[in-house]
């Protein structure tokens, strides 16, 4: 018999006899499933959060905040400074003039549906050009706010996670009353966790005078960030720094990257524990069948085929567990919408995102567990001399 | 004594299995204790809040300021004992990423209201005299290696200094500690008046007001009186107990915390189930031997006790090692992460909980085989073997 035929015979035998060792086999499957599910839960969370922030930033939008302020919330930009920034080199225009959007960013309280407690929602003050700067901005219900009135539009994320923001509702922040006149989508990114209203109205209601907090500007195709940096440097009245919007959000998105690290560390440590359990299972399973394996070898099966048979058994069980774990993680977490505190002190609504790539990482982990927990017992089973194996009890 | 020797022999008969089983238990308890400590650190703000302390914020949101005049009005409310106030400074040291929690406070009343903080009268007097002086919490001082008398440049990511730039030179006049290790001392406070005079925007507002009531029973009444006082004014207030506020703040992190801890604890119990399965099987293998012991005259209760002892010993062997490792890990982490996660300690409550689970693991895995052994009929056992 060829090695291939021998091996497949042994593999078939081992797999078909799995139900006989039901509890042992289940333990192995469970061990692998748990580790994979834990890993995927963490990765899907980190991935979803990152995607929500990163997809908001555009490479061809320049983003100005006061030097050292790190986030929009802390920054300030005076009206004169906005006018100066408007004249910076490389800024694109449309039919309404320069594509520059000075914005305000204040925090208001909303009531979370999940817990019934108050949480921070950003209320962004904008001018009409601001909407032109958001790619894939879309009104899904109602209409835009009318400048100069206390109307606001609400992101789909806010609508999903917070109470009382339905179209037509009146909402109250402290003394101020607002009317929800529209619901917008920006393709799932972080802007959907915000409320948008007219900048001038917010300046009045929040005692901001004529100041803003950040400025966004669309760049022309041949614009260079260095030229803008040089322009700011040569203008003593400006104390802003410039970066692409994509860069700003990439840094903000790192907020939950510790989740991914934490998840990897936890699942690595847990994998060690599960591995110990799986090894135990496989050793017991092999020593239970020491005589059978010895018999195979005595009637002419090669050591290698016996080895491969045991390995295959471990791999199949681990892989089965891996798929079960991935499936459980997928069913429980994929698309799960939740919100958390971001670096800028406000709620970001995001969804867990399970991708094929993540599932592959889980499957790899399962394969590693299967390989290690199969290798050593298989090695032992085939390296014991046949005669000794027959003498052993069991 | 002889029984213990037998138990020991049984435990160590398969060294590899003993090692693997203890290792899995070790990992399970390591994760359990470390993650529970982490969870405790996140919640410590809630547990450490004083019962009679209330916080007054702007109703719009806690990032919105309150008029300075409110302080006097709040002091006048019946049932209010001490009042102080604070302003968020948005401080960082040297680099924006290196955030330092800094608040501008009223130096006369701050330590009265936060009575769990300990500061020597001498240091406090020095601080009161020095406008540019700063009181640093012990943990923060340790992290940055600051000593009394050090001049530290602290920058703000929000405010600008009138002299230009965003940096204030402050002098460490004192280092405060707390009467409980779980109280956060990872921040520093400096003079509100000095802050207001030197920052470029000026204005007469405060970030928030903190007060203590004469008696916790008065909390609700006082909170209501304050909020009613400012109803329909330019800045409405929201007064809550410190505990409720901290709890709400943690809840802002949201159910992802819940999800994480849920996932980890599920994994912990699964590992225990797996290990339990192995332990049960390991004893079941020995049915024949137990029959021999019985034949030799070992009484059934004696064998029952021996098996339970064995499974509990195994559970505690791995579990205690895991708990010890978690203690070291948490100790190391709390050094490393003192800046982000103060109050990371492996408290006695976690140890007790872990010990409880170990005992439970030992009993549950031992009870089924022990019971079988108790009822074992020698004849059938031999017939089967």
Shape of chain B: elongated
Strand content of chain B: 15-25%
Q: What is the beta-strand fraction of chain A?
A: 15-25%
Please provide the count of β strands of chain B.
Answer: 13
Q: Describe the largest sheet of chain A.
A: 10 strands, mixed
Total strands of chain A: the figure is: 14
The portion of residues assigned to helices of chain B is: 40-55%
Catalogue the unreliable spans of chain B: none
Q: Class by helix and strand content of chain A?
A: alpha+beta
Biggest chain pair interface: A-B, 56 and 51 residues
Shape of chain A: elongated
Mean pLDDT of chain A: 88
What low-confidence regions of chain A span 5 or more consecutive residues with pLDDT below 50? none
Structural class of chain B: alpha+beta
Number of helices of chain A: 13
Our count of domains of chain B comes out at 2
- Give the SSE string of chain B: HHEEHEEEHEHEHEEEHEEHEHHHHHH
The helix-strand sequence of chain A is HHEHEEEEHEEHEEEHEHEHHHHEEHH
Main location (chain B): membrane
GO molecular function (chain B): ATP binding
InterPro entries (chain B): ABC-4/HrtB_transporter, ABC3_permease_C, MacB_PCD
Domain MacB-like periplasmic core (chain B): 22-228
